[in-house]
Design a protein that fits this description.
The complex is a heterodimer of chains A (about 80) and B (about 325).
Chain A (H helix, E strand, L loop, with lengths): L1 H9 L16 H8 L17 H11 L3 E6 L8
Chain B lengths: L9 H10 L1 E6 H4 L5 H10 L14 E5 L5 E5 L4 H17 L2 H4 L25 E12 L4 E3 L11 E7 L1 H7 L9 E2 L3 H11 L16 E13 L4 E12 L10 E12 L6 E13 L13 E9 L26
Antiparallel strand pairs in B: 2-3, 4-5, 4-6, 4-12, 7-8, 8-9, 9-10, 10-11, 11-12
Helix pairs in contact in B: 1-4
């Protein structure tokens, strides 16, 4: 409750915001426009795991090598 | 880099899917964590050129065995180079004695040691939202995908937003009436603003500080109620800027939000959490150079994740902050 009350106080700061309000009718079209399109997510055709240890376990069971994509910033996230 | 080249190549995708166990990881965690996962990774990486001197990055593409033997390492932009790397790694695997390659020869037990400083798991009983960000351009009557000179900067960027169990409960009250307003928890409001309303389309962006959230307004109003569904309309606006005077700020985002949320009032399970944020963004961070000049439309879309999908359980970028991620209002 305290956090909600605090939010009410903080959220009442005078606004300098200038962006146009969005119309509810725009939601679906904008959502679709922003989300990934099928042809730009080819890297997701690979069933990436996210734990090297889990990959070890699966590789040992399957008799396969591991391929690790290691980046500063998670490869399946913002980079 | 890899998304645009290596892992968009049909031959490489086929080679990996047919022959490898693929895994993706954030080096920021892997090179630091003092536990089974981190120690094993560094044992593999130490066999290659990226030995992490002085805590430096070990990023790249590695091929190795379940026992930890490095088969190959490469970090290159050229698809042909990376295709050869994958093929050569497979040849190195095939040269190993059959006994090393056989199924179920090595018994990899469960993880025994987990470094709590770097292990990140979604909040128990909470919610994961997928967050997608994309540059847009204005058309005569709407918007279209944006264009930019930065390679890959026009693509959708990904992140996840985590809500705690308490926040989820607060957002899905049981006994509600049409027209009733639901209070958005302050920590969730500021988490959304500081860590998810940003331009991550060219890499790792700086997060907004608490003080840089100049305006934060979110309203949740019940639109419809029946026995099986409560429908809530979300509206909101944020002004995020590096300077109190947004006109003078080097970096900022002036954005409006609209959303449609549906949940079951009995189970409080969400069936829809579709939210869009759209407004003008300007400026760049130390690792996100190449921004379009001036102020340009940037869109952010949120929707329910699928927790069964490994990619949807990747921690939010800002979870590197540890507990501060959940205390964004402080």
């Amino acid at each position: 409750m305290r956090s909600v009350l605090l939010a009410s106080l903080l959220l009442s700061v005078p606004t300098a915001h200038a962006a146009e309000p969005l119309k509810f009718e725009q939601l679906g079209k904008l959502h679709t426009l922003i989300k990934p399109q099928a042809d730009e997510e080819k890297f997701m055709q690979i069933p990436w795991l996210t734990s090297v240890w889990d990959a070890r376990q699966q590789a040992a069971r399957a008799g396969k090598p591991i391929l690790l994509w290691e980046m500063d910033g998670h490869p399946l996230s913002c980079v | 880099m890899g998304r645009e080249s290596t892992f968009a190549d049909a031959k490489i995708i086929q080679l990996i899917n047919d022959n490898f166990i693929p895994v993706a990881a954030d080096d920021w965690y892997q090179r630091r964590r003092d536990d089974d996962e981190g120690i094993f990774f560094r044992k593999v990486a130490d066999q290659g050129p990226r030995k992490g001197q002085g805590g430096s990055t070990r990023q790249g593409i590695y091929a190795f065995t379940a026992s930890g033997k490095l088969l190959g390492y490469r970090n290159h932009h050229d698809v042909d180079v990376m295709r050869r790397f994958v093929q050569d790694s497979l040849k190195a695997w095939e040269k190993l004695p059959a006994g090393e390659r056989a199924k179920d020869v090595l018994n990899v037990g469960d993880v025994k040691k987990v470094d709590a400083n770097y292990a990140r798991t979604p909040p128990k009983g909470g919610l994961i939202l997928n967050v997608t960000t994309r540059i847009l351009d204005r058309t005569d009557d709407f918007f279209c995908h944006g264009t930019c000179k930065f390679p890959g900067g026009q693509r959708a960027a990904h992140d996840r937003l985590w809500l705690t169990a308490d926040e989820l409960q607060a957002l899905t009250p049981r006994d509600v009436k049409v027209g009733q307003e639901i209070a958005m928890p302050a920590a969730a409001t500021y988490r959304l603003a500081r860590f998810h309303l940003l331009d991550n389309t060219r890499g790792e962006p700086p997060m907004w500080t608490r003080a840089q959230v100049r305006t934060a307004n979110v309203a949740l109003k019940v639109e419809a109620v029946n026995d099986s569904a409560v429908r809530v309309r979300l509206t909101g606006a944020f002004l995020l800027s590096t300077d109190a005077d947004a006109k003078a700020a080097q970096r900022g985002y002036d954005v409006s939000l609209i959303g449609d949320i549906i949940y079951n009032p009995a189970t409080r399970a969400l069936t829809r959490f579709d939210v869009v944020a759209l407004g003008d963004h300007w400026g760049a961070g130390p690792y996100t150079g190449g921004a379009r000049p001036g102020r340009n439309p940037l869109g952010v879309a949120l929707e329910l994740a699928n927790p069964e999908r490994a990619a949807d359980r990747v921690p939010p970028q800002a979870a590197r902050e540890g507990g501060n991620y959940f205390r964004a209002d402080r």
